[in-house]
Amino acid sequence: MPKSVHFSGTNDGLRQAIEDRLVRAGASISEEPQGADMNIGLGTDLECDIAVLPPGSDSDRADLVVRLCDVIIPNGGRDWGTGTLLDWVDQVKHGLEPQTGSDSRYWVNVRDVADALVTLALGRDGLAYSGRVNMCGRRGWRDEDVVDEIRILWERYNNAINHSHTVDSLSGVPSPVRGIHSQHESPELGALHNALIESGGEGWHPLVPMRTSLMELIASTE
Question: Quick check: 130 pLDDT over 90?
């Protein structure tokens, strides 16, 4: 199993989450690529073992290319899709109507992403899988449902801060992101699922609920 990992490219919330997870897994972070057991590039075309790139991007200088999108990164900047949600949160806070599209997005929490990337990087026998894989959430969320959920959570957050909860506000309100419209098939994730299994994991099974991710994002903006 690789013991030291070097990063190139962007230094953002995604990188910080991966580094934290690597350290907890017993690996060390190397400042220099020479001598590192594994090199991970984030948003860069530099030579590396694993390149994490936006959808539609590619690299012939990496053994494994992970095309990543729709990541929720609280306290982690606007990259990898988080900027869209940050804009919606800001607009809801100011009583504005967010501009949404008609397509579904496949949101996933950064902790699930970090867990998966660390599994790929720290395989039992090094990098066990090469090629191209997509990484995003497994379920599609309609924009309007996500915005409705942000409104509900923002109201609850305000009520908690201002001690203004009522019986109605504390009653069970169905989550829009759990409705029937969220049951969409995600983009092709079979290759990612297999790569994680080959690397010693249990496949691609994101665990952090959408509501939890949005709550964390809202709290990070206060």
Answer: yes
